Amino acid sequence: MSDFHQNGPIATLHDLGTRSLASLEAELTHIARRRPLALIIPSLYSELEGPALGPMLDTIAEIPYLSTIIIGLDQADREQYLHAQKFFARLPQTVHILWHDGPRLRDVDAQLAAAGLSPGQPGKGRNVWYCLGFAATCGMAEVVAVHDADILTYDRALPAKLFYPVASDAGFGFCKGYYARSNGTHLGGRVSRLFLTPLLRALKLALGPLSFLEFLDAFRYPLSGEFAVAAGDISKLRIPANWGLEIGLLSEVYRSLNPKQVCQVDIAARYDHKHQTLSPDDATRGLSRMSREIALSIYRKLATEGVTLTPELFRALKASYLRGALDLIQHYHSDARLNGLEYSFHDEEVAVDAFSRAVIEAGEDYLATPFEPAYISNWSRVISALPDIPEALCDAVARDAA
């Protein structure tokens, strides 16, 4: 993506192919002497047995500027946790594993629940929330980056480009990664390119150019799982516990940071990881559920911006969304042809049909529960209510490791 176009209220940092990885890593190594850098990898135990994570760790082991790796481990029993300790022991950096299903972290969660502050349902949002809190409150680093555990096209340039904008003296407090989703034969990223982008444009058509919608639409890949953040800003951010994590986090960044402190960076020429099934006939699974929860997250945020949401608005929104999404199918067909990729109009239209139902169903969910909490409490509130929780969290992770 070696262009240099800037669009919207945030800075876009491009990979123009003019700087070597060795030069970038050398500068980050110099920076890390005064600003320690930590990498968070939220992971299911099953990903330890998948094709991506092992090679990723072999690459991470060679990164010179990283001092700390934080693993959020979900769906693991005791034997699996012990295996995870051995699995991650290949890393020369200091490794902390948050065993979320272990008795000590469950005890921490019970203390939070007693105060009405538990993240609630298991999932990636809960995993990331605990890991960010651990990094910020236990003094692990000054800059923290997060990426997924299943990146099949991983290389050392990805974390370097993700860390650099926040770690350097450019004045950014938050950086979002973007890339082209492709497995080499097909385009990926259906939820982002066929759901979120046309939904945001339909909302702008219906509601006008709200600054929140302009902010979201400025991101080239708003649903990417890769971001970096200054540790000092972590305590301000609330995040959803469900599949609205990425869009909800951007909503919080919009609320908490000046757009001049926010950027996006090109972190990979091509990116591929495991793909979710569409599940067009089951709104509780796959991309159907994901799109519904993303839309619900946006609707709840719009309500806090003073927008009145009605059944009539959602019906108009569905019609506008559908027209825009179908137009984009034509664009992506031409894009795929130019790049020699296979493309199925039928499969794309099946996805759009499922996503159009999500526009309405998320609206019905919002109207049925307009006051339901959408976010996990931020760490500032947790520490205010329970000042001993950071110490308990750090101690639980250390005792598990021992």
Automatic annotation (TrEMBL):
GO terms for molecular function: transferase activity. It comes from the Bacteria. The keyword Transferase applies. Keywords: Transferase. InterPro entries: Nucleotide-diphossugar_trans. This is Glycosyl transferase. It comes from Acidihalobacter ferrooxydans. The lineage of its organism: Bacteria, Pseudomonadati, Pseudomonadota, Gammaproteobacteria, Chromatiales.
